[in-house]
Amino acid sequence: MTLTTPLPSVAPSPAxxxxxxxxxxxxxxxxxxxxxxxxxxxxxxxxxLRDSGLTGRGGGAFPVAxxxxxxxxxxxxxxxxxxEGEPLSRKDATLLHHAPHLVIDxxxxxxxxxxxxxxxxxxxxxxxxxxxxxxxxxxxxxxxxEVRVAEDRFVSGEATAVVAGLAGAPALPKDHPLHLTQRxxxxxPTLLFNVETxxxxxxxxxxxxxxxxxxxxxxxxxxxxxxxxGDGIGEHxxxxxxxxxxxxxxxxxxxxxxxxxxxxxxxxxxxxxPARHLTRSLTPRPxxxxxxxxxxxxxILAIGVETCGLTVxxxxxxxxxxxxxxxxxxxxxxxxxxxxxxxxxxxxxxxxASRVWQLIETLPGRGACHHxxxxxxxxxxxxxxxxxxxxxxxxxxxxxxxxx
Amino acid sequence: xxxxxxxxxxxxxxxxxxxxxxxxxxxxxxxxPDEDGYPLPAAPARQRTNxxxxxxxxxxxxxxxxxxxxxxxxxxxEK
Lengths: 404, 79
Ligand code: SF4
Ligand code: SF4
Fold this sequence. Notes:
The complex is a heterodimer.
Chain A: H1 29-36, H2 45-52, H3 64-69, E1 77-82, H4 91-98, H5 100-114, E2 119-124, H6 126-137, E3 146-149, H7 159-166, E4 190-194, H8 195-213, E5 223-230, E6 234-241, H9 246-252, E7 260-265, E8 271-274, E9 281-283, E10 292-294, E11 299-304, H10 309-322, H11 329-346, H12 354-362, H13 371-385, H14 387-394
Parallel strand pairs in A: 1-2, 1-4, 2-3, 5-11, 9-10
Antiparallel strand pairs in A: 5-6, 7-8, 7-11
Helix pairs in contact in A: 2-8, 4-6, 5-8, 10-11, 10-13, 11-12, 11-13, 12-13
Chain B: E1 9-12, H1 22-26, E2 31-33, E3 39-41, E4 50-52, H2 58-67, E5 73-76
Antiparallel strand pairs in B: 1-4, 1-5, 2-3
The complex binds iron/sulfur cluster (2 copies).
One iron/sulfur cluster (SF4) binds next to helix 1 of chain B.
C-alpha cells in the first residue's frame, strides 16, 4: 500500500539516542565498518543476549534468549523478518535502507553461535529487499543469505505465514500446534526474529549487555524503533529508549501535543490513548491494569482534535476485516460482522451495545493467528475511550469537521 | 521426583473446522455453537484454541477427534 512512498529520514532528534543509525543515514559497508568495526566473536553470545534482556521487536516482545532456549535442536533455518504487514509501519524498511549491515551482522552472529550451516533468509517488502541485496553485494560474508520479497498483506508478517511463504505456499498463517522453534521450515527447528531485533543483536554482540541496558528501563531495556504517523505530522521513524513517554516521542518528531486528540499505540491491533494520558509510557507488553501503552511493533498514529476517533477506527476495522486471510470460519465471518455492528453502534444508529460487545468478547482466541484478537481489542479500545463521541453520535451530532 | 501430570488439551485447527458440529454434540459443556455454528469454547479467550480438559471429558473428546469430519481436532498432552 505505501510501497512507493519515500522512506522517512533518520536524522537524529537531539532528544533521542542514535544507536541503530549511529553510522548515519545510508550507511554502506564502509561507513558501517568505520563506525562499528568488524563482526565480534560469538563466544558467550547467548548468555550476553540473556543478560541484555533484549525482546523481539516484531510486536510480541518475547525475550530473545527464551526463544533460543526453546529450540529443540540447532536451528536449521534462521529468518530475519522485515515483512511489516502494517500499512503504517515503516521502521523495518527504513532500518534496512539506512543500516542494512547491522541486520546482516545480527543474522550472521546468530548463525555462527547456533548453527553455522543454517539456512539464512531475510524476508522484506520490496524496497527493503533492494536495500538488503545492495548491502550483500558490498560484503563477502553474506553470500549465502537468501533474500525474499514478503507478500503485501496485513497477516503475512506473522511468523507461521513467513514460514509458509518460504515453503512456496501462500504467506498465510498456519495452524501451529507446535512452536517454530520445535517445528518450522521443513518441520525442523526454526528461529525467526524481526530485522530490528537482529540489528540489536549485532550491537549487543559488540558492546555487551550492560551497554544495552544503559538506556531504557529494567522492563524494556535498550532502544526501539517507532513508526510515527498522524494528522499534520507526516511519517517518521524514530529510535527511542524503552519506556519513553508517548508525549516525548511525539514532540521529538515535531508534533504539537496540544493539537492531538488521541493516539493509537501499537498499530491497527493497538489501543487508543486519549490526549490526557499522553504522559503514559510505552511498554513492551500489554499490562491491562497498569498505566502503560503496549507499543507492539512500534506503530503510533496520532489524530488531531478535528478527527473523530470512532470514525477512524471504523475504517481500520473495515480494512482489517478485508485482510482476514480467509481461512478460519470465526474470523472470516466474524470480522466483517464486527465492522458492520461497530459502524452501526458507533454512528449512533444502533443503541443496543450488546450486539457489538458480544462479538468483541467471542472473537478472540479462535483463529490460527491473533488477527481476530487484535481486531476485537481495537474495537474494544475505541468504544471504551471515545465515549463522549459515542454520546454525541447518539444525540445526532457529528463530532468531526465543521459540524463541531 | 514427581512431576504434575500435564492436563490434556483439545486443539482446534481453525483453518480446517467448517462448523459441522460433531464436537458440539459430544462436548456440550465444553463447546457451544456461535451464531454461525462454529465451536465457541467456554474457556477464556487465551485457551480457546488449546482447550483444557477435565479427566471426565477425555473419552468424549477422543470421540470428537475421531468423528470430526474435517480432522480439525487433536488431543495434546504436553503443556
Ligand atoms: S485467524 Fe483470520 S487472519 Fe488468522 S489465519 Fe485465520 S482467517 Fe487468517
Ligand atoms: S466437529 Fe470438527 S468441523 Fe465440526 S465444528 Fe467441531 S471442529 Fe469444526
